[in-house]
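re: that chain from earlier
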Amino acid sequence: MLEFLLSSDALMALLTLTFLEIILGIDNIVFISIAANKLPEHQRSKATNIGLILALVQRVILLFFVSFLVGLSEPFYNLETSWFQLHISWQALILFVGGLFLIYKSTSEIREKVSHPSHDEDQVKGKKIKSLSNALVQILIIDFIFSIDSILTAVGMTNGLHPNHNYTLVLMIIAVMISIGIMIGFANPIRKFIDTNPSVQMLGLAFLILIGFMLITEAAHLSHTEFFGNKVGAIPKGYLYFAIAFSLFVEFLNYKTTKKSSKK
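^ sequence. v structure.
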């Protein structure tokens, strides 16, 4: 396992996934902070830290569950015609539905942030919280909602890296633990950076569209889908890593240019 975790593919997946987990976790931090700020001053930091720990526990549990389903690769339904062929397994079904969900979630999030940036925050602010237990229940619900796209992103980034799903599961858990640890230690600086550079979060949501599309093609590939004798191939993850790295490099150049312009 150590040899796999230290391989270039695993390290690249770990770095990319940790970055995406942090970007996806920004809204989670914001909503947890809103819920915690309704409590007395001495309970706020406690509620925030417990909320992030609950997020970690929930995501690890979901990772085990989703990883188990993704491991079910035996087809349970076969469809063959003169021009079309399909062999559906639970693995392919989870990846396909997950890909559709990521594309839907990311596009709707982008649309919402452009048209009404504070919509979700206003909803959370409107809910009454009377005690620490009430706050934790609300935080638990918020964590679960944000865990879904986080888990699907993790599956999309690591699926197919190793034939043993336990190895990729360990890699996903490490990425989630690192990202949650960074969010606990640097929640406020990260949030301030995203507030001043909202394009970074938009970029993260745009990456989810790529990952969602990759999950759909991966599902078609694992289902041995054929159209008129042509098999659907899987998209090499190197293409995704390059697209993300190139986009981040362009964003970095844009950030440096904007910073220099503001100083002048």
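The CA atoms of residues 1 and 167 lie 6 Å apart.
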